[in-house]
Structure formats: structure tokens, C-alpha cells
Amino acid sequence: MEPPAGQHRPHAPPPSLWPVGFAVGIAVLLTGVILGWVVVAIGALLTAIFGFLWVRDVTGGLRTVPDVEPERREVAPPAAPIRADEGGAGMVASSESEIERFPRSKFLEGATLGLGAAIGGVVTAPVLGFAVLPAFRGGEHEEVDVGAVDDFPEKEWMITTFRLDPDLGDVTARTAYVRNNGMLDGRPSFTIVSNRCVHLGCPVQPNGPAEDKGTQFDNKGRPNQVIRVPTKPAGFGCPCHGGQYDTEGNPTAGPPVRALDRFEFSIRGGRLFIGKPYSVGGVRGEAADAVIRRYDHVLPGVHVEGPSALMYPLEPPR
Amino acid sequence: MPRAKSARRQQIERAVLYPLDWLEERSGLIGGVKYFIFRKVPQDIGWPQTLGSATLTAFIVQAVTGAILAMYYKPHPETAYESIRYITNDLTLGWLVRGMHRWGASVFIILMFFHMARVFLYGAYKYPRELNWIIGVLLLALGMFEGFTGYLLPWDQTSYWASVVGININGTAPFLGPFLAQFLQGGAEIGADTISRFYALHMLLLPGALFALIGLHLYLVIRLGVTSPPWSPEAAGRDRAEVAPTTNGRAGLVRPGSRGGLTRTGVRK
Ligand code: HEM
Ligand code: FES
Fold first, then answer.
1. Nearest residue (CA) to ligand 1, atom 7
2. Confidence at residue B243, expressed as pLDDT on a 0 to 100 scale
3. Residue of chain B whose alpha carbon sits nearest to that of A129
């Protein structure tokens, strides 16, 4: 059946297989981020070639010059002047030169749109800033007192739960595995490993027995701010996706992408204070002799070493 | 054979029609609603084409039950879990409304996928409906984001750690992922700001955006008409059936059959 006159035919582009190659190229490229640079290069090459072919296909119609005469518009000859005291004088047909001037209607149109945009911008900018910026400021916490150094027996692990900000309460509770390594060159040494899995942030558990009850103590006049439970782990394991770590926090199995984060610490007046967290690429050696590859604190799942680390060039401010 | 109407019947009819005429004269709304309800659709559509309306129904159920839950829910780390417990165990019918909202959320997402599968398998995304497919993709993304932000709100162990994992999955996206994650949790750590932020997104921003986009989506559905199935004997681009011009906005709405009416008119051959 012929479509009746004036009826639009669907003018979809003809089928093309190039997008399939393009998609395969991108998939190879992304796989390369895990497998290595050669695969990345192959993927990029495929993407570029098929992308080019695809674009050439799609724009084929645009690049040929159409066989149609350009439309012309005749300019009417200027109307004879009308005397000012006759009817219709206010509505002289505009001549071309007058159109090129900047008539009042155009100015009003621009002014309305421009003013509207300016008002919109003045309202939107602070609102957007308010929605976004606070998330990137004020992330620092004071050091937290977790007890006397003598409460941490040498070579023993303590599951230590504390509040980052006592004013905000339970929602700021964090847990670290703390081990007193004894003295190193006359100064006390501690291993303080965060329990946040560096796969996606679940709480890792000690692989080994933990005592039922711990000791609790108050801080800054608030009850139960710190809880310590002795444990004897052979490593740490994550309940969410099975990530496994040794006692220094090195990943031994599963999806984690680096070693467990650690906390800085300081000792004042015989008490242990937990400070800022930092991220760890890996640890060689053990306890007081450990050599730690230290990085700024980043989110779980973010690579700090190897080609994958290139995907995280910027760190958000805190 | 038309029968003469009794005087009483005519009286009742006039009484019913008066407010409708009043509204039609001042707003044209009756005509608009009629246009929407009695618009032509292809002859050979069936149940699969109702999936969009089913999704819409699920969305409306979510909006209503959600608004009622918001009357009792308290978005703060110290109170959220307790208020959910109170809604579920103590409030009359609270368990029901919460259950509808919780299960309805899954129904909404599942129906969206079924509807999308229908559109895909029927090729209904093709010219001139590409834009409606794109709006649909935005609806899908916003709908899933709605589910993600809602999941945190009960503030129990499952929802807390699932949200930690979900936020950190966003954080692993290349380049801007860490910024996105920090924006989502409202700070360097997940905390009190996270729950109120998720609540505002879940309650206000995302439903508002969904409402607006659904409106656009339906506008395009009505403007472009529903696609015939690929196996339809009708050729694409055929002539449209003549539509009898309506002189009176209300005609056919309360008196089906007088003009247009409830019969499904096929395309003339
Ligand atoms: C909030 C979610 C959504 C609602 C409430 C909704 C609603 C609807 C309704 C009522 C229709 C017309 C009847 C029908 O075909 O079922 C429709 C059509 C359509 N929808 Fe959706 N939809 C939603 C999500 C989506 C998604 C996720 C997609 C695809 C990515 C999509 C793409 C389309 C397209 C292309 C049509 C036109 C189909 C045709 O003309 O045959 N929609 N939608
Ligand atoms: S969060 Fe620990 S293995 Fe995934």
C-alpha cells in the first residue's frame, strides 16, 4: 500500500553493525583496566576504529550536498512614506535596514530572558552550593582517648570500639583492632587496624575466639564511650563477600583491593589516643618491625597502587 | 430504536451535566479528559500494553503510602529505628501501610522492567518514540535511586550496612566516584547527615522529579499514540481514521454512544 500523500514515512537510519564493534571495543578496554596495558590499547584501538566507521555511516547523509535550490525570500520594495498625520503612520512596514537595527521588541525579549536567567542563577547557585559543599568540609575529628597504655597487654589484640565524636553519639562508633607491640627503640609501638573492609566497607571480624564480655569505660562524662574486648585472631574475615586478611591487614583472599586501613596514634600521660586514619598499600614484616606502604585515607574499594590507581587521580577534600 | 426519555430522567441528566458543562466552559478539562480516555489506539494491542499503567499505579501507591509513613517516621539516627518499630508493632494498621510501601517498592521496580521489556520486544522505542525511551531510562534510574535511598531509612543493621556497601560501590567509580560517595553520605563518614540527606532525596527531590518525568512520558505517549505490535497487519504510516469533530465537550462522556463513545473503533480499511 502506498502511503497517502503528505504522510511521513519513518525515516530511521538504516541498520548498522558498527555500534556492536564499538561496544566490544569499550568492553575490551574496561577489561584491560584489570588485565593490563596491552588489552587497554587493543580496546582503545577497536573503539576508535569502529567509532569512526559508525560516525561516518551515520553522517553520510549530512556530508553530501543536497540537490535542492536554496529557498529565497524577496524583500518587498520600501513602502511609500506615509504622512504622520494620516492613519497607519505608526505601523510602517519595516525595511531591511530597520530590521538589522536592534528594535525595542528584541531588547525587551532579551531583557526578560536575561533577567529571568539572572534571578534563576542567583537563587540556584547558593542552594546548589549548600547541597554539595558541606559534604566536603569539616571531616576532621579530635583524637580519641581509648584507655591507659597498661590496659593493652603486650602482644595481645583488643577489639576497641570508640566514638569518633562523643557529641554525635552511637552513629560515629568505629571499631579498630589494637595490638600493643611493646617497645621499639625505647618508644611504645601499636598496631591499630580499622575494621572497615577495604572492599566495600563492611565490618571485618577476627578469625578466632573473642571473649564474651569486654571492659567499658566512659569518656568526657558520657557512659560507655569505649569498649575493649580481648581476642586471639589468626587473621580477619569479612562477612559480606568473604574478603580475608592476615593479622597485619594484608589481603589474602577475596575481593579487597589493598590492605586494611590503619589509624595514627599518640600517647599522652600514659594514655593511648587514636588519631587520623590512613590507607595502606601493603605491609611487609610484622608487629613492631612492619614496613607499611602508607597512602592518604581513601574510600574502600579505591585502588592505591598499580594501573588501577590511575582511575582515582583526585581525592575529595574532607 | 430510541425511546422518549421520561421527564424525570431528563431532569436528572440535566442536574448531572450542569456542573460538567460549567467546568468544560471554563477550563476545557472535560474535553481534555475525554480526549485522553477515548483516544484511538491500534486494534491489536492487549495486556502487554497495560504494563505502563500498572507501573503508574504502583508509583501512585508508593506516593500515597509514603506520605502516610512520613507522618510517623522520624529521620534521625537516634529515633529512626524506634519510629519504624512503633509504626510496625504499635500503630493501628501501621504494619499494613509499611508492608505495602516496602513490597510495593519491589513491585514498582519489577513492573518498570516488565514494561521496558514490552517496549523493547515490540520495537516501540523506534522513531518517533526515541525520546520517550530516553525519558524511560531516566525514570528507571530515578526509580532505582528512590529504592536505594529508601532502603537506608529503617536504620537497622541490614539497611545500614547495605547502604555503606552501596555508597562505597558508587565510590569505586573511576575519577569522580569518591566525590559522588562523599556527596551521598554528606561528609567524610556515613553519619547523622546521611540519613536526613537520604530522607530528603527519598521524600521530596526524587518523587518530584519522577512526577515531572512521568508527566512528560505520558504526554508523549498521548501525542504519539501507542505503537502497533510488529506483527500487526496494518502498515506503518497509514491514514488515520476520520475523527468526528466534537461540538460539545461533554458529549460521549456521560452518554456513551452518542458520539465516539466507549466502543473501540478500529481503523477503517
Ligand atoms: C515510572 C515508570 C514508568 C511509567 C509510570 C510509565 C508509564 C507508561 C505508560 C502508561 C505508557 C503507555 C502504555 C504502555 O505502553 O504501557 C508508556 C509507554 C512507553 N514507555 Fe513507559 N513508563 C515508565 C517507565 C519506562 C521505562 C523504564 C521505559 C524504557 C526505558 C519506558 C519507555 C516507554 C516507551 C518507549 C513507551 C511508548 C510505547 C508505545 O508507544 O507503544 N517507560 N509508559
Ligand atoms: S565488603 Fe568485605 S568483602 Fe565485600
1. B52
2. 56
3. B183
Q: Domain check: are A216 and A280 in the same one?
A: yes
CATH number at residue B100: 1.20.810.10
Alpha carbon distance A177, A261 (integer Å): 11
- Say whether both A114 and A202 belong to one domain: no
* Ligand 2 atom having least distance to the Cα of A243: 3
Of A168, A169, A200, the CB nearest to B169: A200
Is there a domain that residue B186 lies in?
Answer: yes
Residue A305 lies in a domain: yes
Convert the pLDDT of each residue in A49-65 to its tens digit: 999 999 988 887 777 76
Q: Which residue has the cell 529565497?
A: A72
- Checking if the pLDDT of A205 tops 80, the result is yes
Residues of A in contact with B126 (CB under 8 A): 10, 12
Quote the CA–CA distance of B48 and A18 in Å, as a whole number. Answer: 32
Measured at the alpha carbon of residue B42, what is the angle toward residues B39 and B44, in degrees to the nearest 5? 140
Residues 6+ apart with CB under 8 A from A42: A28, A32
Residues A191 and A132 in one domain: no
> Is A205 a domain residue?
yes
- Given the CA of residue B168, which atom of ligand 2 is nearest to it? 1
* A160 plus A121 within the same structural domain: no
Closest in A171, A300, A311 to B192, CB measured:
A171
**0.85 surpassed by complex ipTM:** no
Residues A267 and A121 in one domain: no
Contact B167, B173 (CB under 8 A): no
Tell me the per-residue pLDDT of B70-111, one tens digit each, with 9 for 90 and over: 999 999 999 999 999 999 999 999 999 999 999 999 999 999
Chain B residues touching residue A240 (CB < 8 angstroms): 161, 165
Residue B138 to residue A167: CA distance in whole angstroms? 40
The domain containing residue B89 runs over which residues?
A: 46-227
- What is the value of pTM for the model shown? 0.78
**Total count of domains within chain B:** 1
Note whether residue A70 is domain-resident. Answer: no
